[in-house]
Amino acid sequence: MTTNSGLKKFYIKCSLRYNNNMKHGVQLILGGAWSGKTARAEFLARAHVRALWIGTGSRALPELDSHIKSLQAGRPPNWVQIDSPLNLVATLQDIKKQLDNSLLVIDSFSQWICNEVAHKAARHDDKQLMDLCKYEAEEFFSEIESLAKTNSILVVSADFGQSLPPHDAGQRAIRMCVGMTNARLGSISSSAELMQAGFTIHKYQRIT
After folding, report:
1. Domain count, the chain
2. Bridge partners of 159?
3. Rounded distance between C-alpha atoms, residue 83 and residue 108, angstroms
4. Beta-bridge mates of residue 25
């Protein structure tokens, strides 16, 4: 069985002979949980001289903190790595001057959406959460579209749509919100890759 670590080593090895000069714009990497999205993003990012990596994973649990530390330790020392589980739009506004021709990687959009929903769940009903989710997502898209005019951007996001609908209403709301905002994210992306079991099974290129 191929482990996530094995996939990461495979992508690092391949990247030594891979030349991928991304043009300005947004590239989306989409897939299910543990499908190889992050390893693929790292592989693509290694073709660039510099990268600014924004991680949205929460460090609330010890195992999550350990996983994030392990991922960060395996990346090139010249990459700038920032944690932003919440307030991602503000983070994007803050790092504009740091980009300086670096590739911008956001891993992941879907995790940020889930974090924001969980953070606000106690104060709002499901409909209010959906409205807030869509509003904050549109702010994110506005920032990304602006940055993409002069920068190359990789956005990682999870696809919840292939799973069975949850029984819990709150979980169904999150699933719907991520699905809708992923579709919106796809509409502003110049290309997209769909990951499954560590493989890129589909590549899409927008024709203009």
Report:
1. 1
2. none
3. 11
4. 152
